[in-house]
Amino acid sequence: MAVFVFSDEDLRHDEIKQFVLGRYVSSNYAAWRIFGYEIHLSSPSVFHLNVHLQKRQLVYFTEKNARQVIENPKGTTLTAFFKLCSVDEFAATLIYPEVPEYYTYNNNNWKRRSHGTELDNWPGVSRKNVIGRVYNIHPTKQEIFLRMLLHVVTGPKSFADLRTVDGIICATYREACLRRGLLLNDDHLHRTLAEASNCKLPWQMRRLFCSILIHCNPSNPLNLWESFRQSLSKDIQTNLALRDGNDDVYNEALIDMDRHIRRYVIRGLSEFHLPTPVHHEAPLDVEYMSEKNYNIAELTETITRDEPRLLPEQREIYNEIIDSVRLNQGKLFFLNAPGGTGKTFVINLILAKLRAERRIAIACASSGIAATLLQGGRTAHSAFKLPMDIGKKDNPKCNIDRSSSRAILLRECSLFIWDEATMSNKAICKL
């Protein structure tokens, strides 16, 4: 390896001279050049193909030509493909990604290749080794179903032809994919939700349902909702004291999921063709309900099982904290013990005891991993809406409106538990 340094200041900023002066030509490279072999080669070439919904292609315009562009939008490789299939018999035998092998795209039109390997059965048609690659689509977008159809439907002359299956024009591209058997069934997702309904709280099931919508691309989200909407809204039904199957109950469950999913998907549940919830002026706060709606029977069973297992020191702090809450003394406790001595065990038992008495006890931790070990735990940033850059702000504030449901929840809370509090930024103590 040779290392060289340019002393001339001008050369340091001249990349061309740097390349020429620093270039080393070996005997192998010289021989390769003498024989005229290719230095760079890309084979096969790749041709990108547009995919878009009807009249949804990307166009560029200015103030002067806006009306003209709207009335006569520029064509794309997809719209040109439809025109080609209408006039070219051979093109009608191809699917969209195969077109670049036999045609070139110029001036918004596909034309047969003049060079390449001629086909025996089709005079005037030549083939070249070119890969047609349709642009990728996010699984949550409706264009994904259009893209799937373009890979199986030969010779479509319009968008309607892509939706036509056995002579029937489907209402959506997704329906056409279902009729063609291009979509997997959702049996595994049904089993997931069925299992979750046996061990998860309704609000936890709603979070799982949202995760399935965002990450698992279910074939029929509406069927999933209709199959499990009772389990997804059980806590709302209990708190509203309404009969099973009431539309108001389902609407509240949809509102909760719509709020959660809008953090990741702008259009919310409508992105997945689920019923659009009716938002009203005084929505039911599901987060507040989840803190008041723990299963008392399960909590009592936990207390009965675990209280006798407390060690003397554990029982001492356990009783002192419980008594302080019951007497409304407003004390501050710091529990310090080595790892593996049962801190989490004691904390979860305290939470169960207070929640069994219909008190609100909020458990949080400085890290997400620690929060998962606490019953109903969450991160401190989530519980108190702490700013992410709290250490950089001169006057940090929690993003909680005093009239919000979160503020009401915090005011009614009987006990805050903060695991790994010493790992937090010291600025939090000044809030």
From TrEMBL:
<comment type="similarity">
    <text>Belongs to the helicase family.</text>
</comment>
<dbReference type="InterPro" id="IPR010285">
    <property type="entry name" value="DNA_helicase_pif1-like_DEAD"/>
</dbReference>
<feature type="domain" description="DNA helicase Pif1-like DEAD-box helicase">
    <location>
        <begin position="311"/>
        <end position="427"/>
    </location>
</feature>
<keyword id="KW-0347">Helicase</keyword>
<keyword id="KW-0234">DNA repair</keyword>
<keyword id="KW-0547">Nucleotide-binding</keyword>
<protein>
    <recommendedName>
        <fullName>ATP-dependent DNA helicase</fullName>
        <ecNumber>5.6.2.3</ecNumber>
    </recommendedName>
</protein>
<dbReference type="GO" id="GO:0043139">
    <property type="term" value="F:5'-3' DNA helicase activity"/>
</dbReference>
<keyword id="KW-0227">DNA damage</keyword>
<dbReference type="GO" id="GO:0006310">
    <property type="term" value="P:DNA recombination"/>
</dbReference>
<dbReference type="GO" id="GO:0016787">
    <property type="term" value="F:hydrolase activity"/>
</dbReference>
<keyword id="KW-0233">DNA recombination</keyword>
<dbReference type="InterPro" id="IPR027417">
    <property type="entry name" value="P-loop_NTPase"/>
</dbReference>
<keyword id="KW-0378">Hydrolase</keyword>
<dbReference type="Pfam" id="PF05970">
    <property type="entry name" value="PIF1"/>
</dbReference>
<keyword id="KW-0067">ATP-binding</keyword>
<dbReference type="GO" id="GO:0006281">
    <property type="term" value="P:DNA repair"/>
</dbReference>
<dbReference type="GO" id="GO:0000723">
    <property type="term" value="P:telomere maintenance"/>
</dbReference>
<dbReference type="GO" id="GO:0005524">
    <property type="term" value="F:ATP binding"/>
</dbReference>
